[in-house]
Amino acid sequence: MSINPRFDEYHLNVFGDRWAFLAEALKQAGLKQNKVSVGLKTGCSKDFIFSQGSMACIPREVGGHYQLDLASVLAVSALNLNPGAKILDLCAAPGGKALVSQLVVGGEGEWHLNELSQGRLSRLKSVIREFSPVHQDSLHFYKRDASKWGLTEKNIYDFVICDVPCSGEAHLLNSPSHLKRWTPRSSKNLAVRQHAILCAALETVRPGGKILYSTCSINPQENDGIIQRLLKKRMDRVEIIAPTLSGIFSGEPTQYGVEFFPDKCEYGPIYFSVLKKI
Ligand SMILES: C[S@@+](CC[C@H](N)C(=O)[O-])C[C@H]1O[C@@H](n2cnc3c(N)ncnc32)[C@H](O)[C@@H]1O
Fold first, then answer.
1. How far is the CA of 117 from the centre of ligand 1 (A)?
2. How far is CA 230 from CA 194, 208, 225, 236, in A?
3. Which residue of 56, 61, 80, 228 has the fewest C-beta atoms within 10 A of its own C-beta?
4. What pLDDT sits at residue 245?
5. At 33, is the secondary structure helix, strand, or coil?
6. 114 CB under 6 A from ligand 1?
7. Angstrom distance (rounded) from CA 35 to CA 2
8. How many angstroms is it from 243 CA to the middle of ligand 1?
């Protein structure tokens, strides 16, 4: 049990008997970051565990590549990006998913990378400078509130990555001061922001274009709950694409997406859903 009884009670209600195992697995997952390295296929050893397009994903021991959770790679891969695409990452720092999107298409495309926090924007720029194969002219950085994005730039992007701020329970369980402050309202407030950011993504993606919505939360109201809310309002404008994952990756399908939780697989937590604008 954690130091915040409301936190445990809330999650016991959602997950039942599974919660004790899930809580322990989340705590461990929060401690061991960075499970795989990503890089261009040409520069990698042959024993990559996953590859798509120009990108390979190899065990973390190999230096010189950016390290991140394999589930993040799977999430971006579910978009089936094509070279030459115009891609917006609305919440981009520190840059893991943006980088995967660039490696997959071998750096051919145009990227608009947004991050609200100045400190994290600087980190994003340095990650991209160090690891990205993209030419400087094809990179554009912004420091804006993602939820306001769709107000002016409508129907522009081929793909929008929407990796929203979330409860991040794996982090919470390793951070007593944050965990003590958690209440069910914390997640509700985040859900309001997540919904606003997803609505902005829908405005700015072009018809036929795709959105990746993802979180590292286990809370259904921040995951399928956000997709459901969007469908309620904009059913006529959006279609859910079922992710096609190779059988070796054991995600659990949900109503609108897929979740990888660390009590059931070696990576995550992550939830994602892919949406197509009609
Ligand atoms: C889950 S993290 C993104 C991780 C990133 N996609 C990656 O793969 O490395 C969410 C990010 O959104 C940023 N953020 C929070 N609210 C935002 C907003 N309203 N507009 C833009 N960025 C925001 C946070 O500072 C944080 O860096």
1. 8
2. 11, 17, 9, 10
3. 61
4. 67
5. coil
6. yes
7. 25
8. 23
Q: Give the ligand 1 atom nearest the CA of 147.
A: 19
Q: Which amino acid is at 50?
A: F
**CB distance 69 to ligand 1 below 6 Å:** no
Structure tokens at 273: 């859903």
- Distance separating alpha carbons of residues 100 and 49, to the nearest angstrom: 15
- Dig out the tokens for 125 from the structure: 């720029």
CA distance 115 to 174: 25
Identify the structural domains of the chain with CATH numbers, from first to last. Answer: 5-30+69-277 (3.40.50.150)
Residue 228 Cβ < 6 Å to ligand 1: no
Checking 42-46 for CB contacts under 8 A at 24+ apart, the result is none
* Residue owning tokens 């959602």: 14
Confirm if 237 and 168 have CB atoms less than 8 A apart: no
Cα distance between residue 223 and residue 215, in whole Å: 7
pLDDT at 106: 92
Q: Is 265 a catalytic residue?
A: no
Catalytic one among 57, 91, 166, 216? 216
- pLDDT for 47 equals 74
Instruction: Split the chain (278 residues) into runs of 10 and give each run's mean pLDDT.
Output: 90 97 94 78 71 82 75 93 97 96 95 98 96 95 96 94 97 96 96 98 98 98 98 93 73 94 91 97
